[in-house]
Specification:
With 411 residues, this protein is α+β, with helices and mostly antiparallel strands. Helices cover 42% and strands 13% of the residues. It has three domains: 3-98 and 106-129, Butyryl-Coa Dehydrogenase, subunit A, domain 1, CATH 1.10.540.10; 134-243, Butyryl-CoA Dehydrogenase, subunit A, domain 2 (Beta Barrel), CATH 2.40.110; 278-404, Butyryl-CoA Dehydrogenase, subunit A, domain 3, CATH 1.20.140. The chain has helices at residues 3-6, 10-26, 45-60, 81-90, 99-112, 115-127, 243-254, 258-261, 278-287, 299-321, 333-357, 375-386, 393-404, and strands at residues 132-135, 151-155, 158-165, 176-182, 192-198, 207-212, 221-232, 289-290, 293-294. Bound molecules: flavin-adenine dinucleotide.
Length: 411
């Protein structure tokens, strides 16, 4: 029995059994197309169709949206999403594509939306039929998010939106966007509002989505331009001008601290198609040669690999600590630390993998001679994005220093 299963409540134990049985009978098997390493790089409709069908099946079986009330399409359970997540990872199922919807939009709509809006939006979000994206960042507003300039002007019952969002993951497939914008130019924080916007139905009618190509050659994120897009006032989630407070709910979930604030999302974690962990690194070192012997026998590389094993174990111990209330001095400490360290550890593991592979590290996906199918170079390049998305490492350190450790505020 796994450590987490041993601590199950009776409801969780019964639900875990349901998940195991259903996953054993309904595993979708090998995908018919090559999948990206994470949902943020879904590029083709073939990939999306396969992944959406999987999310719908998992939702219909009760494995998605488990802890939300039944009235909004949830499973009405109590702290069971983490059980479903763990069982899906254990069964090595594909990831769920609606990652921004499940992780960020759902808790935000649930805690701030009107009842009718929740009932309309959440069931199709959970089932993955509606993909969601997040329109926060702009060319002049990333870390300093409250500087967003996209503007909504009130005209009767409608708002007319103009502006430019960037790095918008999944916008090329999204039906809906969570959108932070400005309704008042004279106040920085108090001039912000928060909308849910149906962007797909507005393509070519006030919304333009332009893909951006990453260093890996993949698309995945986009620019989104709003030109006189009319949106109904019923799509506004904030009390006018209090959009920053709503955005805090989203950011808390994006940075991993949300479950303390709004425990229903269950942190929608699912398995990526490549794992930048020390155990995969050890496998790679056994396959690759250095001076005519397996790289795993090189003393210097062994040293660096074992350091990664120790760092990963430290991270895992932190996650165990997070489950013991008495060990928490500040609700944001462990989740923020986790985001910061997990992204940096994965990046360092990728860098060591490049060294282990040596000259072969230049062989990419699709090359039969590439070690581990050429997944490592792609993971290494993508790892840089993970230390930027959801708040850069520098910004995470600032928040930890100022809010958790009580250090002086940076200027
Ligand atoms: C893979 C990926 C997916 C993304 N998906 C989305 C998405 O779906 N929706 C969305 O809205 N955004 C998305 N983003 C954007 C992301 O949120 C921003 O890139 C991030 O907030 C940083 O903003 P920026 O790029 O404007 O950098 P800037 O804020 O301009 O930062 C530039 C540099 O300055 C440093 N810096 C800035 N301020 C400080 C400070 N106060 N102290 C110390 N250093 C500082 C930063 O750490 C960074 O190194 C995504 C980004 C990536 C990489």
């Amino acid at each position: 029995m796994s450590e987490s299963a041993a601590k199950d409540t009776p409801e969780q134990a019964q639900f875990r059994e349901h998940c195991r049985q259903w996953l054993a009978d309904n595993h979708p098997g090998e995908p018919p197309v090559r999948l990206p390493q994470s949902p943020l790089e879904i590029m083709t409709t073939e990939q999306l169709d396969y992944l959406q069908a999987w999310q719908k099946a998992a939702y219909d079986a009760g494995l998605v949206g488990c802890d939300y009330p039944e009235e909004v399409g949830g499973g009405g359970r109590n702290d069971c999403q983490r059980v479903a997540n763990a069982e899906m990872i254990r069964a090595r199922t594909p990831f769920l594509p609606n990652v921004i919807g499940l992780g960020m939009a759902a808790p935000t709509v649930f805690y701030h939306g009107q009842e009718a809006l929740k009932q309309r939006l959440l069931p199709r979000l959970f089932s993955g039929e509606d993909i969601w994206c997040q329109g926060f960042s702009e060319p002049g507003a990333g870390s300093d998010l409250a500087s967003v300039q996209t503007f909504a002007e009130k005209k009767g019952d409608k708002w007319v939106i103009n502006g430019h969002k960037v790095w918008t993951s999944l916008a090329h497939f999204a039906e809906w966007m969570i959108l932070l914008l400005r309704t008042d130019k004279s106040h920085k924080y108090d001039g912000l509002s928060y909308f849910v916007v149906p962007i797909r139905s507005a393509l070519g009618k006030g919304v333009t989505v332009r893909p951006l190509i990453k260093i890996t050659g993949e698309t995945g994120f986009n620019e989104v331009i709003f030109e006189d897009l009319e949106v109904d006032d019923s799509f506004r989630l904030d009390e006018l001008g209090k959009g920053w407070q709503v955005a805090m709910t989203t950011l808390a979930h994006e940075r991993g601290a949300g479950e303390k604030v709004t425990p229903r999302s269950g942190g929608m974690k699912s398995r990526s198609t490549h794992s930048s962990t020390s155990s995969s690194l050890i496998e790679l070192a056994r396959q690759c040669q250095r001076d005519g012997r397996p790289a795993s026998e090189d003393a210097l590389l062994r040293d660096r690999i074992i350091r990664q094993v120790i760092r990963e174990e430290g991270l895992a111990q932190n996650q165990r600590r997070a489950r013991v209330a008495a060990l928490q001095d500040h609700p944001a400490r462990l989740p923020l630390q986790n985001k910061l360290l997990s992204s940096e550890i994965a990046q360092d593991t990728g860098a060591i993998a490049m060294e282990v592979a040596g000259a072969s590290a230049s062989l990419y996906l699709g090359d039969d001679n590439a070690p581990a199918g050429g997944q490592w170079p792609m993971a290494y390049m993508n790892s840089y994005g993970m230390t930027i998305a959801a708040g850069t490492s520098e910004v995470q350190r600032n928040i930890l220093g100022e809010r958790v450790l009580g250090l002086a505020k940076s200027k």
